Amino acid sequence: MTRPPLLIPRPEGLYCPGGDFFIDPTRPVARALITHGHSDHARPGHGAVMATAQTLDIMAIRYGEDFTRSRQVPEGPTRIGEVTVSFHTAGHVLGSAQIAVEGQGTRIVVSGDYARVPTPTCAPFEPVPCDIFVTEATFALPVFRHPPPQAEIARLLASVTAYPDRAHLIGAYALGKAQRLIAAIRAAGWDAPIHIHGALQRLCDYHVAQGIDLGDLRPATEGRKADFAGSIVIAPPSAFAATWAQRFPDPVIAFASGWMQVRARARQRGVELPLVISDHIDWPNLTATITELDPAEVWITHGREDALLRWCELTRRQARPLHLVGYEDEAE
Predict the structure, then answer these.
(1) Strands 252-256, 97-103: parallel, antiparallel or unpaired by DSSP?
(2) pLDDT (tens digit, 9 = 90+) per residue, 33-61?
(3) CATH 2.60.40 fits domain 149-275
(4) Mean pLDDT in the chain?
(5) How far apart are CA 303 and CA 95, in angstroms?
């Protein structure tokens, strides 16, 4: 009797028949293993959820304590049915993990979203030897070569110095990107208060509770318009489309994203100061990671598949696209 594959792409997401669970399913299922807390990977409504303690906390913050009927934190390698699963740090956001599934003499590592650039806001990526590596392809084009974050922060602080009468409003996603940005600004020597939109408050407070120093953070609603001259304000990108942004003096609109390398995207968003800061892996680090792991096969998901498929072909690596749907490109 032929055994089913270890993992199978299904409309709900990647399914493991031997353990009867899904990884990052896009619709409610009986049992879900979750790589991280971004809403395109971590959805509410599952019967049971296994994830890192920090990811479970983040899901509770975002969806309420009753986001699932049952939750479990893996304590080392865990047996589920006919397979063994283990969680390994991914370097993406706080609590993010790669999920290794072992069975039938094969190990598949589902990386979720991941990054190789160090940050104090989450644990670094752990290379895990495997037979099959499932990788994201958000920035899987040779044009995407992210500059050092320190260089982008230097551009930001130079702009703040050059325009002391203006507020600098930076769009950053609430989980991961905002905290990564704040930590980078602090590392560059900015000790003044950083003002944050209310939508960021609970997740920033959680990072601080986890021992991550974000410095003096203040609500962006405190003070008069003139008081924000020369200040840095961080908010979710959606806030800039509302009248909320009008309460700041002649704001410089900035946006922190890997997509800011594409000038057309910056223009479409009305971004005056694009900051190429990403919590996803860029092309050089993506190909270097695959070379380092040297898996027998590469599975490619949620992103640009063609260039990476071609690179794998040129480097004589087996590769296939999974065509999973429901994931966003560096978004929530």
Answers:
(1) unpaired
(2) 999 999 999 999 999 999 999 999 999 99
(3) no
(4) 94
(5) 22
Among 15-24, 235-244, 310-319, whose mean pLDDT is lowest? 235-244
Q: What is the dihedral of CA 172, 285, 318, 109, to 10 degrees?
A: -60
Beta bridge partners of 232: 168, 194
Contacts of 269 (CB under 8 A, 6+ apart): 171, 237, 240, 253, 255
Per the document, the length of the chain is 332
Class of domain 8-143+280-321: alpha beta
Evaluated on CA atoms 288, 88, 215, 258, the torsion sign reads: positive
Main-chain phi, psi angles of 299, to 5 degrees: -105, 135
Q: Is the pLDDT of residue 332 over 50?
A: no
Query: What b/e readout covers 187-213, taking b as 16+ CB neighbours within 10 angstroms?
Result: eeebeeebbbbeebeebbebbeeeebe
- Residues 139 and 282: beta-carbon distance below 8 Å: yes
The type of residue at 66 is D
Domain span(s) for CATH 3.60.15.10 in the chain: 8-143+280-321
Instruction: Kindly state the tokens that stand for 101.
Output: 């599934």
5-34 pLDDT, tens digit per residue, is 899 999 999 999 999 999 999 999 999 999
Read off φ and ψ for residue 64, nearest 5 degrees. Answer: 95, 155
What is the rounded distance in angstroms from the CA atom of residue 191 to the CA atom of residue 260?
Answer: 26
Predicted confidence band at 292 (pLDDT cuts at 50, 70, 90)? Answer: very high
Place of tokens 């260089």: 151
- Start-to-end Cα distance in the chain: 43
